[in-house]
């Protein structure tokens, strides 16, 4: 199996172990984190091996109140805590929250990229 897909699998496992719902396609149930290839997707690191870059989209509940922002902040905390279990991952720097329309519903969301080389 590709080292890129191994790294994605390890990220998914860490998030699920941390109690975070994960999606890898556009079919999702909020709150969750959607994992997609980042840009650039693959690069050679300083240490031997390939680094994979993954775009994380944290999607909370419907964007209708201050509660949606609080739910998004809690989701980010859970994601960051779960990712700390992966040695060598670059922890996310999350973008400013925004409203994201999915299937006609507007959700509170934020985005980040992580770089990780599977072990």
Short description:
This protein has two helices and five strands, in the order H-E-E-E-H-E-E. A hairpin with a 5-residue loop joins strand 2 and strand 3. The model has no long low-confidence stretch (mean pLDDT 90).
The portion of residues assigned to helices is 25-40%
Tell me the number of structural domains: 1
Query: Which range does the strand content fall in?
Result: 35-45%
Please, what is the average pLDDT?
90
Gross morphology: elongated
From the N-terminal CA to the C-terminal CA, the straight-line distance is 13 Å
By DSSP, the count of extended strands is 5
Describe the structure.
This protein is of the alpha+beta class. The chain has a 5-stranded mixed β-sheet with strand order 1-2-3-5-4. The longest helix has 18 residues.
List the helices and strands and how they pair.
Blueprint lengths: L2 H15 L4 E2 L8 E13 L5 E13 L3 H18 L14 E5 L2 E12 L3
Parallel strand pairs: 1-2
Antiparallel strand pairs: 2-3, 3-5, 4-5
């Amino acid at each position: 199996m590709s080292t890129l897909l191994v790294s994605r699998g390890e990220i998914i496992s860490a998030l699920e172990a941390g109690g975070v719902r994960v999606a890898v396609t556009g079919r999702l149930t909020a709150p969750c984190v959607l994992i997609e290839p980042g840009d650039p997707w693959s690069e050679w690191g300083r240490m031997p091996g390939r680094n994979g870059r993954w775009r994380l989209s944290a999607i909370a509940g419907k964007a209708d109140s201050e509660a949606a922002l609080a739910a998004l902040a809690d989701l980010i905390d859970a994601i960051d805590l779960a990712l700390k279990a992966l040695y060598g991952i670059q922890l996310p720097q999350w973008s400013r929250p925004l409203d994201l329309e999915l299937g006609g519903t507007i959700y509170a969301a934020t985005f980040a990229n992580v770089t990780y080389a599977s072990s």
